[in-house]
Design brief:
This protein is an all-alpha fold. It has one domain. Helix 2 crosses helix 4. The protein is globular, with a radius of gyration of 18 Å.
Length: 185
């Protein structure tokens, strides 16, 4: 079992490395700029699709590059709105599959340690739930993998109807920031 876990971690690191290399190549060759200029209205669909890929650790680097290039060539606001909408869809997929499973595994892990009872009591505190809510939202807004933020939101037992606007707002802020940085470069 340990060898399988080690192999999965190495594969994940490899995928992340390849993702970063692809992002660097996209920036250096200006492929995205050329595609956007040639295609005309592709920025609308491109923002939405790049937003979907903005949510996961494996594709976030190329998505950041794509969103930055789209924002440089078009409206930062429309890029952020459409990108955030796509990111919500990506986050919902992750939310459905990751939230409860990873939170459960983390709680099980803590129960095997001596501090398990204290940690379980901490999880029940109202302030801890608000802290995980805020921290999870900030992680979603950042280029960090949304899986981590969504897992934190799983601790706060967030409902899907509350998760959707939270994801939209924080992804909008994150993509808007990317667009602002891209415009200044």
């Amino acid at each position: 079992m340990a060898n399988n876990h080690r192999r999965e971690v190495i594969q994940d690191i490899g995928i992340i490395f390849i993702s970063v290399v692809v992002a660097i190549i996209l920036v250096e060759t200006e492929v995205i700029v050329k595609i956007l200029r040639y295609s005309g209205k592709l920025e609308l669909l491109g923002s939405f699709v790049a937003g979907m890929f903005f949510t996961t650790v494996f594709t976030t680097a190329p998505a950041i590059v794509t969103l930055g290039e789209i924002a440089r060539e078009n409206s930062i606001w429309s890029t952020a709105i459409l990108g955030a909408t796509g990111a919500v869809l990506g986050d919902l997929i992750i939310f459905r599959f990751v939230r409860d499973r990873l939170s459960t595994h983390l709680i099980e892990l803590v129960q095997h340690q001596g501090l398990g009872k204290r940690f379980k009591a901490l999880l029940r505190l109202k302030y801890f739930r608000w802290f995980t809510f805020l921290l999870g939202g900030l992680i979603i807004a950042s280029p960090l993998p949304d899986e981590l933020g969504i897992s934190l939101l799983g601790f706060s037992k967030m409902r899907v109807l509350l998760f959707i606007p939270l994801s939209l707002v924080f992804n909008f802020i994150g993509i808007l920031f990317i667009g602002l940085v891209a415009k200044t470069l």
